[in-house]
Amino acid sequence: MRRNTKDAELRERAAQVIPGGMYGHMSTAMMPEGYPQYFAQAEGTRITDVDGNVYIDFMCAYGPNLLGYRHPDVMAAVQRQQALSDTVTGPGEPMVQLAEAMVDMVSHADWAMFCKNGGDATTMALMIARARQGKRKVLVAHKAYHGAVPWNTPRPGGVLPEDRAHLIYYDYNDPQALEDAAKQAGDDLAGIFAAPFRHDTFADQELPDAEYARAARAVADQHDALLIVDDVRAGLRIARDCSWETLGVRPDLSAWGKVLGNGQPISALMGNDKAREAAQKIFVTGSFWYSAVPMAAAVETLRIVRETDYLEHLQRIGTMFREGLLEQGRTLGLPIKSTGPATMPMVLFDDDPDFRFGYAFCQAAMERGVYLSPYHNMFINAAMTEDDIRRTLDATGAALEHVKKNRASIEPPAALAKMAALVAEH
Question: Which cofactors does the annotated protein need, by name (predicted)?
Answer without folding.
Answer: pyridoxal 5'-phosphate
